[in-house]
Amino acid sequence: MNKILLLPLLLSGCLFAIDSDMDGVDDVQDQCMNTPFSDLVNAKGCTIRSLQSDSNYDIILGAGYSQINYASQEKTDTFTQTMQADYYNDNILVQVAGSYFQSSSPSFKQSGLGDTLIALYYKSQFGNNLTVQTGVGILLPTYNSGYHNEAIDYQGSISFQYDFNDHYNLFGGYNYAMVNDTDIPNTVQYQNTQSFYAGAGYAISDGTRISASYAQVQSMYVGTQTVNTASIGLFYQLDTHWFSMLDYRYGLSDTASDHDGSVRIGYSF
After folding, report:
1. In the predicted model, what is the mean pLDDT of the chain?
2. Are residues 25 and 68 located together in one domain of the fold?
3. Is pTM, for the whole model, over 0.90?
């Protein structure tokens, strides 16, 4: 008789067992509560190994407008569509980026692909505030201008970000490109180029940041004035996966577009 009464009580105890973090170990026996769902745990409910990957990806599509064609240095309405794909693994970033442009003016029309960038970057952390990123890349000649600039170019870069606190930061960077295109006598002469930028940012909230910066870009064409611009930018996190970026640049030199803007939207997974 006692055994018959004991069976329902045992079944009742099994039916009402609680496993709050869903790791397969009941709360009454779980010594490590709230372990991530992706973790493998031992009989005590404590993590043995995490199955969560350190790798993630994003794809960013964009559209931009400027008032100059940098190949012809002619004041030209230019619309650009951009595509960028990034792969992150711990401190390593692999990036592929390309573009398609359409330029038109009363005396000039041109459209086609821009050069395609394939780059590798490595991020180093110095203390809690300073992050330094170094990179190397190649520029594939998917752009055809008709001026013998269809060689593969190489570039190296270094950039930094210094965070004063959760809201304020300073950032900057330097880029050097080795241009391998063939000169056209009495028409075009090419040169290696360098560029740098510097600015400051402010985080309004966890998902919203604004920035202001100055950039100077040397032209690949010998004798062409350096391009100087001032810009402001906005980053906004739409949700867990989607994010957006808005940029506006104002030309400070005759070789720069008077007004230049772009909007980009990305998805991370």
Report:
1. 84
2. no
3. no
